[in-house]
Specification:
Elements (H helix, E strand, L loop, with lengths): L8 E3 L47 E5 L11 E4 L5 E3 L4 E7 L7 E6 L4 E11 L6 E2 L4 E7 L5 E9 L2 E3 L11
Antiparallel strand pairs: 1-2, 2-3, 3-10, 4-9, 5-6, 5-8, 6-7, 7-9, 7-10, 9-10, 10-11
């Protein structure tokens, strides 16, 4: 493999959870001047088993994680505008807005005291700050990035530092 070379991988459709019967309310959160709403008091789970993390959407990984490259802090997963974006592991939404440059409509979920996941370039956000979410729950619809590509940019951070999401996600065939 050539370092930094683009690699592609097709991701299978996430299996719906049996508890995923009612979609979250499609309400628009009240926003501040930074484009985010105020968070509710934290009731974040203390642990999130990395083996339980699911792929957030189906599609092909068109750009992978590259350690030390701020432009490659996660995975870019190509798909169709409007397709479901699902949370990878249970947690609490700590950010739902568009105030961070370069991420478009962004959702950040806190899974434990040290683990976060981020879902960027959404067309529609279906959760607001303070919401509790479960693994596999639809939290957004895929949108486009600034290059007009239909994709999800997905990151996992441990103690604030980007880590390779593929080291946490279940294998595609599970």
């Amino acid at each position: 493999k050539t370092p930094g070379a683009a690699q592609t991988k097709t991701v299978a459709r996430p299996k719906p959870s049996s508890s995923n019967k009612a979609p979250p309310a499609k309400t628009a959160p009240a926003t501040t001047s930074a484009g985010s709403s105020k968070a509710a008091p934290s009731t974040t789970p203390k642990t999130a088993d990395p083996k339980s993390w699911k792929w957030p959407t189906e599609g092909r990984v068109i750009r992978g994680f590259v350690a030390g490259d701020p432009a490659r802090n996660g995975l870019d997963i190509a798909g169709k505008e409007g397709q479901a974006i699902n949370v990878s592991s249970a947690g609490q939404v700590v950010y739902s807005g568009n105030g961070l440059i370069g991420y478009g409509e962004l959702i950040i979920v806190k899974h434990s005291e040290k683990m976060l996941s981020a879902y960027a370039h959404n067309r529609v956000r279906l959760v607001k700050e303070g919401d509790q979410v479960w693994a596999g729950q639809k939290i957004a619809e895929m949108g486009r990035n600034s290059r007009d590509e239909q994709l999800l940019h997905f990151e996992i951070r441990s103690s604030g530092k980007p880590v390779n999401p593929e080291g946490y996600l279940n294998p595609v065939n599970e």
